[in-house]
Amino acid sequence: MKLIKEEIQFIEEYLIKNGVKYWDVRLELLDHIVSAVEDRMENKGISFNEALLEVHAEFGNQVHTLGVNPKRQL
After folding, report:
1. Sign of torsion, CA 23 21 17 54?
2. Chain segment 21-64, per-residue pLDDT in tens
3. Is the dihedral of CA 57, 61, 65, 70 positive or negative?
4. CB-based contact 29:15 (threshold 8 Å)
């Protein structure tokens, strides 16, 4: 499944916000992330957001969710 222009722009803005300032590096990362997201959407039948979160986590980034922190000791 191919991503639409707005989804690709969202990923590029995400990279810029996360400090990827060199355009050549950003272009390589953008290509890699777009391909990985498209693959997950097609093969797993998941949404753009779900696929992007999976790819984000694979880069070693933490995925923040709203709600109670499961690691917090009560």
Report:
1. positive
2. 999 999 999 999 999 999 999 999 999 999 999 998 887 666 55
3. positive
4. yes
